[in-house]
Amino acid sequence: MTSVQAQHALPSYLNAEDLGPWGVYLQQIDRVTPHLGSLSRWVETLKRPKRILTVDVPIERDDGTIAHYEGYRVQHNMSRGPGKGGVRFHQDVTLSEVMALSAWMTVKNAAVNVPYGGAKGGIRVDPKTLSRGELQRLTRRYTSEISLIIGPNKDIPAPDVNTNEQVMAWMMDSYAMIEGNLSTGVVTGKPISLGGSLGRREATGRGVFVVGREAAAKRGVAIAGARVAVQGFGNVGGVAATMFADAGSKVIAVQDHTGTVVNQGGLDIPRLHKHVAEVGSVSGFPGAEAFLDRDAFWDVESDILIPAALEQQITAANAPRIRTKIILEGANGPTTPEADDILTDKDVLIVPDVLANAGGVTVSYFEWVQDFSSFFWTEEEINARLTRIMQDAFNAVWTVAQEKKVTLRTATFILACTRVLQAREVRGLYP
Ligand code: NAD
């Protein structure tokens, strides 16, 4: 029995032998609990999602057969506001994963102090196996199944891995049809033509860059000329790579689901984007000096490493091999607690996911506010507000980390969990 199993009253619907990402989250909560003072009385609240909805999502395939997919929406905590969090379409989605992602949203929203709780959704499907029509039917049926618990004042989904503006437009339309009114505020990350916000698509990568600049200043690393390695070249990794390259960094390695491209002189990022748009992956990029297999990525020495793909990528197995100064967690949950300790001992500064990738939800918040008032801001206003919120959050976390002599992850959890549990305490238990 592991220490996580021994210390926690685990629900019957999880596999105690393989807790997955939820087990990682529980260990993170254990690390913050000693710092919560009298609020630790409420900490069990954070170890149990408020509400879990599991749905069957049937669709008619183009060939006339009927396919069924497993779908989830988990609302982890709504003490500070309505649920907020993305929807992931991926063949490896599990309940444990969606639970952990929803809990990290609770922490993230409190860390940047936007007035939301935490939620997340997903469907266990490889969307690459579906036609556009099938994808639309899947999205609409899933939305109808979870429409009981979502809404502009209840829970507001957004894009995550393998979902995009188009998926959000179908979700909004399905919800509007069910409710009989427009309800643009039911999802964020929508197309601009449908109440989306300028700057939302780039927001997460931009936020990663902003906190990266702050972290680099603290560590004495110059952004111009810094060697940057990025895992994942999608929405988050692709934008972060562009912003670092634009600021004069050398993006020396990029990995996606097919492999790793390397150029010690700096990859030409606009050209790499063009290549990925044409070919579907970084493989075969003519501007690379070398192609490495996926695992060899972790041996590339860098100044800044940005995991921006999936969770549990940096583990006790590869952490000892990693040579970098700063890790910016663009992805959710990329580092296991064991790897966290190994890297901290090696003096690597880790800016945790719940802070580093909070730019996306911050601009989602702006989108929701704009939709309610039907008054839209300029991109300059949005980027300036985003930058201020991310800088302030980073510096508040930095101060707590210095005062308490803890990692930036534990410091972020201290700030965020204190906000969540203060709200819980002052609201009291119902009835
Ligand atoms: P995306 O689908 O746009 O891109 C994912 C990228 O990861 C792709 O380049 C893909 O090739 C690569 N990838 C997939 N599997 C891989 C593997 N096994 N090894 C290496 N690379 C792999 O997704 P995204 O929106 O950029 O999200 C990436 C991460 O960032 C996720 O953890 C997500 O939860 C997190 N995140 C996203 C946002 C957002 O606004 N999109 C906000 C916060 C956090």
From TrEMBL:
Pfam families: ELFV_dehydrog (PF00208), ELFV_dehydrog_N (PF02812). PROSITE patterns: GLFV_DEHYDROGENASE. The keyword Oxidoreductase applies. NAD(+) binds at T204, N235. SUPFAM superfamilies: Aminoacid dehydrogenase-like, N-terminal domain (SSF53223), NAD(P)-binding Rossmann-fold domains (SSF51735). It comes from the Bacteria. GO terms for molecular function: glutamate dehydrogenase (NAD+) activity; nucleotide binding. InterPro entries: Aminoacid_DH-like_N_sf, Glu/Leu/Phe/Val/Trp_DH, Glu/Leu/Phe/Val/Trp_DH_C, Glu/Leu/Phe/Val/Trp_DH_dimer, Glu/Leu/Phe/Val_DH_AS, Glu_DH, NAD(P)-bd_dom_sf, NAD_bind_Glu_DH. Residues 197-428 form the Glutamate/phenylalanine/leucine/valine/L-tryptophan dehydrogenase C-terminal domain. Keywords: NAD, Nucleotide-binding, Oxidoreductase. The record marks D160 as: Important for catalysis. The active site is at K120. GO terms for biological process: L-glutamate catabolic process. Substrate binds at K84, K108, S364. Belongs to the Glu/Leu/Phe/Val dehydrogenases family. This is Glutamate dehydrogenase. It comes from Duganella rivi.
